[in-house]
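Form P-L/3: holo structure prediction, ligand zinc ion.
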Amino acid sequence: MRRVYSSASLAAAHHARNLLEAAGIGAFVKNEMLASALGELPFADCQPEVWVADPAQAESAERILREGPLRLAEDAAVWQCTCGEICEGQFTQCWRCGALRSA
Ligand SMILES: [Zn+2]
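OUTPUT (holo model):
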């Protein structure tokens, strides 16, 4: 197993996993439960992470995800703050810098 992606946003992590599975790469999200406790746990310890089951596929997974963030911004489920943070669609305020959603 190998980690190929991590994000502060659970929606972004799920989106990344969906991209990989659409490409036929077996992937799963780790820290899904911990992510819901964001704000109470040290940030770096509870970021959602995307892992691929087969290390041989990690390279193509990373290549897919390098193109992914561009598509993430267009996904209705997430939005990108001016500070660069990807936020989940149900939030109207950036969890990191507190800015209101602008678009
Ligand atoms: Zn922000």
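COMMENT: The CA atoms of residues 71 and 78 lie 10 Å apart.
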